[in-house]
């Protein structure tokens, strides 16, 4: 059985996010209610299914949250914070040194 295709996008400033799974797309804009569309049956995205499909909405919101968290981990600002945290944690430094990740 084929797994439904998943796709996501996040704007550079994080003000909008979208996640697609199968034929459904969830759009989330800061300050606006989320929207859910069946992009096969409604390619013009005119009929918001958010209230009529709560389970699908919840699944796509979870996918979107996971995707946003993964994007945040890749931001350079996050790396800088992690480097500071590692420098401040001597026990962590020793574990990483023992594993060969740092000198």
Overview of this protein structure:
- The chain is elongated.
- The chain has a domain at 6-74: Arylsulfatase, C-terminal domain (2-Layer Sandwich).
- The chain has a 4-stranded antiparallel β-sheet with strand order 1-2-3-4, covered by helices on one side.
- The N and C termini lie far apart (47 Å).
- By secondary structure, the chain is an alpha+beta fold.
- The model has no long low-confidence stretch (mean pLDDT 84).
- The chain has helices spanning 54-74, 76-88, 90-98; strands at 6-10, 16-21, 24-29, 35-38.
- A hairpin with a 5-residue loop joins strand 1 and strand 2.
In short:
By secondary structure, this protein is of the alpha+beta class. It has 3 helices and 4 strands. The chain is elongated.
Task: Please tag this protein with its features.
single chain, alpha+beta, 103 residues, Arylsulfatase, C-terminal domain
State the end-to-end distance: 47 Å
The class by helix and strand makeup works out as alpha+beta
Instruction: Report the mean per-residue pLDDT as an integer.
Output: 84
Strand content: 15-25%
Helix content: 40-55%
């Amino acid at each position: 059985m084929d797994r439904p295709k998943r796709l996501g996008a996040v704007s550079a400033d994080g003000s909008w996010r979208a996640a697609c799974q199968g034929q459904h797309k969830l759009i989330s804009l800061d300050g606006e209610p989320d929207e859910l569309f069946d992009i096969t049956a409604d390619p013009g995205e005119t009929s918001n299914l958010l209230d009529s499909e709560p389970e699908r909405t919840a699944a796509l919101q979870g996918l979107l949250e996971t995707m946003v968290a993964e994007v945040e981990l890749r931001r350079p600002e996050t790396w800088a914070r992690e480097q500071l945290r590692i420098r401040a944690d001597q026990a962590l430094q020793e574990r990483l040194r023992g594993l060969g990740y740092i000198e």
